[in-house]
Design brief:
Length: 230
């Protein structure tokens, strides 16, 4: 009796993080016969090369994601998105149920406050905006979609770091723009903070290694970090 051919495994990674990129590389190496697809939101114009296939753009809500899973015979769905990407994570739960496939969530651990950290922990970006003292010089370490929220603080000088130049002028009254990715070391981030005479950092508790250098730099400089908790 002839054996039935094995179904090719198809894995969809909801990515956009360094951890997702590392996961794709590992899966491609471990499962050479599998189809590994990483989905990116498309906010970065030139993302770093990824192992396996890459899909860019939204799905059209949980139903659209479920349709993609079914049409592509996806056997595993892995959510390795940014910890604050709540909508896609919620959609993934619903889509996996509709498609009847397992969902694995790989959320990186949040940063833990160290003894020398000067954190001002808040529950939202709105609270972070309101916690900035007048006259501060702030490194705004947030995604481009969150910048406009701070436009009412015309009493603050913002330094905005973005991977890609903005498509339209920023709405901030007083700001400087730095194009590039976060520094890999505390020394690199310290140089940026000193060059712009930064007094405060505003960021989210994203966790992971990719953006931790600024936290280390702030610790060494005794600088306050207004940080949005998970």
């Amino acid at each position: 009796m002839q054996a039935e051919p094995q179904t090719r495994e198809t894995i969809l990674i909801l990515g956009g993080t360094r951890e997702a990129a590392e996961l794709a590389k590992q899966l491609v190496a471990r499962h050479p016969q599998a189809r590994i697809i990483t989905s990116l939101a498309g906010r970065t114009k030139e993302p770093a090369p990824l192992a396996g296939e890459v899909r860019v753009g939204g799905f059209g809500g949980p139903e659209g994601l479920a349709r993609f899973l079914i049409d592509n015979t996806v056997t595993r769905l892995i959510d390795a998105t940014h910890p604050f990407a709540r909508q896609i994570s919620t959609n993934a739960v619903t889509a996996a149920k509709i498609a009847g496939i397992p969902l694995e969530v790989k959320t990186r651990e949040p940063w833990r406050r160290q003894p020398d950290d000067h954190w001002i922990e808040v529950g939202s970006l709105e609270q972070a905006r309101d916690a900035i003292p007048a006259g501060a010089r702030v490194l705004l370490a947030l995604g481009s979609q969150h910048i406009d929220l701070f436009k009412t603080r015309d009493d603050v000088h913002f330094v905005v770091r973005m991977v890609d130049p903005p498509q339209t002028p920023l709405a901030l009254a007083d700001h400087a723009l730095v194009i590039g990715r976060p520094g890999d070391t505390a020394a690199t981030e310290t140089m940026l903070l000193i060059a712009h005479a930064i007094t405060h950092i505003v960021c989210r508790n994203s966790g992971g290694k990719a953006a931790y250098a600024k936290i280390e730099a702030a610790r060494q400089m005794g600088m306050p970090v207004i940080i949005v908790s998970r």
